[in-house]
Amino acid sequence: MIVNLECEMCHFEFDTELGKLEMDKTGTLIYEKKPTCPRCKAFDKVLITDKGFEQLNKWFLKYLDQITKKK
Ligand SMILES: [Zn+2]
Predict the structure, then answer these.
(1) Domain total in the chain
(2) pLDDT tens figures, 3-33
(3) How far is the CA of 12 from the centre of ligand 1 (A)?
């Protein structure tokens, strides 16, 4: 899925495709594709913006729903 992120190094905001998202047992978010800043090329140095957080929240609710249905 596409998530809005902010680069930790240069504070540039960008939308990026993180691929498939999953959450491990400790609640850590794992994404398929690690983000690279399009401006300074920093690899996997990102903060989630408010917009990104909303996107992830929506994803999380669907994700929880899926897990519940499997049981
Ligand atoms: Zn950057």
Answers:
(1) 1
(2) 999 999 999 999 999 999 988 889 888 889 9
(3) 6
What range does the domain containing 65 cover? Answer: 2-70
Q: Which pair of structure tokens corresponds to residue 21?
A: 């998202």
48-65 per-position pLDDT tens digit: 999 999 999 999 999 889
DSSP 68: H
CB 36 within 8 A of CB 42: yes
Residue 15 alpha carbon to ligand 1 centre in Å: 13
Which residues lie across from 48 on neighbouring strands?
5
From ligand 1's centre to the CA of 39, what distance in Å?
A: 5
- Measured in Å, residue 33 CA sits from the centre of ligand 1 at 17
pTM of full prediction above 0.90:
no
**Distance from the CA of 21 to the center of ligand 1, in angstroms?**
22
